[in-house]
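Moderator note: this is an archived Q&A kept for reference. The question asked for a predicted structure of one protein chain; the sequence and the answer are reproduced below.
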Amino acid sequence: MIGASESLTYRDLDLRANRLARELDASGSGAPRRVGICLERGPDLVVALLATLKAGAAYVPLDPDLPAERLSAMLADASVALVLTDERLSARLPAGAHRVVCIDRDALRIAQRPGGAVGAGDDADDLACVMYTSARPAGRRAC
């Protein structure tokens, strides 16, 4: 996997995702929680998505270009307890009851987590993601 400034092997992807999943577990965001992900396309986004699923949580993609009111409504409606982002994009997130983990700022702490396989929940009824497709409340879709 290659990003604009970084290349990542599948082994590195798995290792980073396992460490981030353990960070999510330690923060109490494992199943059946929902994790907001506010990142630009690139290796960190793929790591965050995979880590969230490995932790047994559902992800809620958050577009940093949306108005703060819309993001706030999405976070509240989806009951997001934690948002994965980077330090630059964290300034665009509305204040709220959610915890923020900045992948770049918190990289040293995350890298100290064990990188071995993570045992996620395997209930077929668990959500993988919650997507918001429009500004209307009926625009939420679970997948």
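Archived answer notes: The beta strands are 34-38, 58-61, 80-85, 99-102, 130-132, 140-142.
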